Amino acid sequence: MNMRTDHPFRQLERLTQQVFGDEGTPSRSSAVPMDAYRRGDEFFVQFDLPGVSPDSIDLSVERNVLTVRAERAAEAGEAGEERRWQVAERPRGVFSRRVFLGDALDSDRIEADYEAGVLTLRIPVAEKAQPRRIAVGRRERVDA
Question: b/e map of 122-137 (b: 16 or more CB within 10 Å)?
Fold first, then answer.
């Protein structure tokens, strides 16, 4: 496959977030679950971002590193209302994920769609990386 993820750092990120989470706001992991697959000449990458506003999603590519960043803010209470959390299992805050794209992918033609809490990226395989047929010529033999 032509992708690598930042998996080695995910456990450290989770531990740091759990220990030093936003002050006064219960927090869990900031990792973004991801699926990736190839269909024909395209790769599809899907990120779970439930409850995230499409306006808060930021996508960027720099030197073949795709970065997905989004934020799910805590629900605002009424003015002067103090919340006393009883259970807070839904992650909130800033979510990010980096995916390292191989040279065989065309990062200039990435398309993104967000529906039902799932961000789907369509990344075409670069034309130069697609298989091609090479014609074999036939040379006439000259007897000496």
Answer: ebbbbeeeeeeeeeee
Helices marked H in 97-143: none
Q: What is the pLDDT of residues 10-27, one digit of tens each?
A: 554 454 545 444 444 444
pLDDT 10s digits, 71-125? 988 776 666 677 787 888 888 889 899 999 888 899 999 999 999 999 999 999 8
Query: What does CATH list as the number for 3-21+30-75+90-129?
Result: 2.60.40.790
Q: How far apart are CA 130 and CA 125, in angstroms?
A: 7
Contact 89, 50 (CB under 8 A): no
pTM of the model: 0.66
Can you list the positions of beta strands (E) in the chain? 3-5, 34-39, 42-48, 58-62, 65-72, 93-101, 111-115, 118-124
Distance CA 39, CA 51 (A): 28
Residue 124: strand pairing partners: 42
